[in-house]
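re: that chain from earlier
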Amino acid sequence: MHDLFTYPQSPGWKARETSAAAARAMRKTAPTLREKCLEALMRLGPLTADEIAEKIGSTPGAIRPRCSELALEKLIEDSNERRKNASGINAIVWVAR
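^ sequence. v structure.
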């Protein structure tokens, strides 16, 4: 059984005050964002975190950690495909499992 208040069910943070504050701020919205990410991948197929953010009306900064959380929960996985994101950097293309 998973503890709903520990990573990846709840946003994690590193040993920094600002990181902990950001994780606390996301605690209520992270589950909904994870659901929306998974739904987008199931409905639209393989997408990068930036593409998911665009499709669901969020920001890449809010979505990238949600993808990591979903991957740790084995709900999505790396397709081994890469696409350039807005920064021109290769990004993981995620798929629903």
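The chain has a mean pLDDT of 88.
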